[in-house]
């Protein structure tokens, strides 16, 4: 399988990239899911709209800033490319950090429990990631090491030319879909307190990302280590601690699904 043209179409000379279309689609689907879920958590759907209004630019900036910081040497030499997000280079961990900051601020302003708000909106995130990852396919980026497996994709590597590699974007897309399903199952069968879905997402996503990142050839590095793997390990620990804390303090974070039945 060879990646198609990254340009979807042009309008009056303006090139529209598949990467942008997929990211926009992911955000729209996440918004619709969150709006549908909001009433179950006692949240006004207009609050969700406010959140996405501020979150959308914030996560793009956060994801890009994270990527640029860990590619500092390159972007110091090519400062004009810092804003070229249409060519890829958005780090999901930077986007998550930015999204959490916006959510915390919004919850303080609107006087909403952060854990309740997080559980209402977090379910759509892995589905959005599953869709957005296909942008890497069109841009021929974020792929893995060489392989002859039947599902390998062919990319034009800058150093090696046309090679067959692991479609790590596909692995993560599939994993994200599984996480999406697991969140719904957990919510219906296992959830005891608000906030648990947030930590389940962080833990499950990070486990998959840790192993998939080990196959990639373009990892962001910090002190000789893969940044995404370090962050993933940290988030797994945070998720475990967070779940334990919520289970021990169920009365402080009551399950909104039972309250708003």
From TrEMBL:
The chain crosses the membrane at residues 16-35, 47-70, 90-107, 198-215, 227-246. Keywords: Cell membrane, Glycosyltransferase, Membrane, Transferase, Transmembrane, Transmembrane helix. Its EC number is 2.5.1.145. Coiled coil: none annotated. It is found in: Cell membrane. Pathway: Protein modification; lipoprotein biosynthesis (diacylglyceryl transfer). A 1,2-diacyl-sn-glycero-3-phospho-(1'-sn-glycerol) binds at residue 133. Its main location: membrane. Pfam families: LGT. It is a multi-pass membrane protein. One of its GO terms (molecular function) is glycosyltransferase activity. InterPro entries: Lgt. HAMAP family: Lgt. Catalyzes the transfer of the diacylglyceryl group from phosphatidylglycerol to the sulfhydryl group of the N-terminal cysteine of a prolipoprotein, the first step in the formation of mature lipoproteins. Belongs to the Lgt family. This is Phosphatidylglycerol--prolipoprotein diacylglyceryl transferase. It comes from Acetobacterium tundrae.
């Amino acid at each position: 399988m060879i990646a198609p043209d990254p340009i979807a179409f042009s309008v009056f000379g303006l090139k529209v990239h598949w990467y942008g279309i997929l990211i926009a689609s992911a955000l729209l689907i996440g918004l619709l899911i969150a709006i549908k879920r909001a009433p179950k958590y006692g949240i006004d759907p207009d609050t969700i709209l406010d959140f996405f209004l501020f979150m959308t630019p914030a996560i793009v900036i956060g994801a890009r800033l994270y990527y640029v910081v860990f590619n500092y040497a390159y972007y110091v030499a090519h400062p004009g490319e810092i804003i070229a997000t249409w060519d890829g280079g958005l780090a999901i961990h930077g986007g998550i950090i930015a999204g959490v900051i916006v959510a915390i601020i919004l919850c303080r302003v609107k006087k909403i429990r952060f854990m309740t708000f997080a559980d209402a909106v977090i379910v759509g995130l892995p589905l959005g990631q599953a869709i957005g990852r296909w942008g890497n396919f069109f841009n021929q980026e974020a792929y893995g090491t060489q392989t002859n497996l039947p599902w390998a994709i062919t990319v034009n590597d800058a150093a090696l030319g046309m090679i067959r590699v692991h479609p790590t974007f596909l692995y993560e897309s599939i994993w994200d879909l599984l996480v999406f399903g697991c969140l719904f199952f957990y919510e219906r069968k296992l959830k005891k307190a608000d906030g648990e879905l947030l930590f389940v997402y962080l833990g499950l996503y990070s486990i998959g990302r840790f192993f998939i990142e080990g196959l990639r050839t373009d990892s962001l590095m910090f002190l000789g280590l893969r940044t995404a793997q370090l962050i993933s390990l940290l988030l797994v620990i945070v998720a475990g601690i967070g779940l334990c804390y919520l289970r021990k303090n169920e009365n402080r974070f009551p399950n909104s699904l039972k309250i708003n039945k």
